[in-house]
Design a protein that fits this description.
NADPH-dependent 7-cyano-7-deazaguanine reductase; GTP Cyclohydrolase I, domain 2; alpha+beta
């Protein structure tokens, strides 16, 4: 099993287990990966980010989303502390919903090289219109069970 992260990783020193500064931008954020101990088995990993925040690039007002990231690992697993720091770096990042969702999915896929990855961005209404954004990459291994992302379509509050 490989012990060194892919060449695309910014640093070989994990953020896990030590104090690190919060990244100021998504580009500055480090995404860490760790070796997958079960490369002989296909399985799904899910991360839910129910309180994602970014900034509208036009108005400067905050936008909120519930993100769900599912992937089938290859040689690497996404380390959760680095994901937390990465998504937090969007708090002052100005981008549209579509750009944030796809940017996160592509960055994670580039860093950990999963067999398959999908991200669902369930954005809370802005101007009365909710926006849901979905992106995926890779080929889903045959016979995989992929659960529903579990986020209901927006139907107002009541």
């Amino acid at each position: 099993m490989l012990k060194t992260p892919p060449k695309s990783s910014k640093s070989k020193v994990l953020q896990l287990g030590r104090a690190v500064e919060w990244p100021k931008t998504p580009e500055e954020a480090q995404i860490d990966c760790v070796p997958n101990p079960r490369t002989d088995t296909n399985y799904v990993v899910r991360f839910a980010v129910p309180e994602f925040t970014s900034i509208c690039p036009v108005t400067g007002q905050p936008d909120f989303a519930h993100l769900v990231i599912d992937y089938v690992p290859g040689k690497w697993l996404l380390e959760s502390k680095s994901l937390k720091l990465y998504v937090a770096s969007f708090r002052n990042h100005g981008a549209f919903h579509e750009d944030c969702t796809v940017m996160i999915g592509k960055r994670i896929a580039d860093e950990i090289k999963p067999k398959w990855l999908r991200i669902g961005g369930y954005w809370y209404p802005r101007g009365g219109i909710p926006i849901d954004v979905f992106w995926q990459t890779g080929k889903l291994p045959k016979g995989m069970w992929i659960p529903d992302q579990g986020v209901a379509p927006y139907r107002g509050r009541g």
